[in-house]
Amino acid sequence: MMELCADALTETSYMASICELGWTIESADIGFNLRVFGFDDKLIDFFGTIFKMLLSFCRSNKSGQLPSTIQTGRFDACLEILRRKYANSGMSSAKLSSNMRLLCILPTRYSSFQKTAAIENISIALFMNNVTEILSDVTVEAFFSW
Q1: Residue 66 above 60 pLDDT?
Q2: What are the b/e assignments for 82-99, b being 16+ CB within 10 Å?
Q3: CB of 57 within 8 A of CB of 136?
């Protein structure tokens, strides 16, 4: 989902970066961390655009298809990007040892091999069912500084 959102928001992200605005999204053990940052009066509008994109995954599941904001064929492309990230995650010895340490102490953490196996034969319908289930319990904790 994060890859699809980043892919769909490429143009918006580029235009926002011209105005010194940026965003990151990452998965954590207890959910997702979305960070929107910059110094502009359009920061709230930028956040709204990103948040609408995330929530569009909830609303579009009635048909089992991706949201209309995701272009055709981008699901497979983003899935391939994700597979490559997982395959390359253990290339650095420092990264590998750090990941192994975290796997030992955090029971909810999954290895890159487990993640790759989980997405091996995933379909759009199965993906949308899982994303909808995950996003059904959305809560927001926010810090806004003016």
Answers
A1: yes
A2: beeebeebeeeeeeeeeb
A3: no
CA dihedral over 123, 124, 127, 129, signed as positive or negative: negative
Half-sphere exposure of residue 67: CA atoms within 13 angstroms, side-chain side: 18
Q: 79-88, 116-125, 133-142: which range is least confident on average?
A: 133-142
Name, in order, each residue with C-beta under 8 angstroms of 40's C-beta and a sequence gap of 6 or more.
19, 20, 21, 46
Tokens of 138: 């959305």
pTM: 0.78
Q: Which two tokens stand for residue 29?
A: 């053990």
Which structural domain, as residue segments, surrounds residue 31? Answer: 2-135
What is the greatest pairwise CA distance in the chain?
46
Q: What is the 3-state secondary structure (H, E, C) of 123-141?
A: CHHHHHHHHHHHHCCCCCC
Domain membership flag for residue 96: yes
Q: What is the pLDDT of residue 4?
A: 92
Q: Is 33 helix (H, G, I), strand (E, B) or coil?
A: strand
Q: Is 143 within the bounds of a domain?
A: no
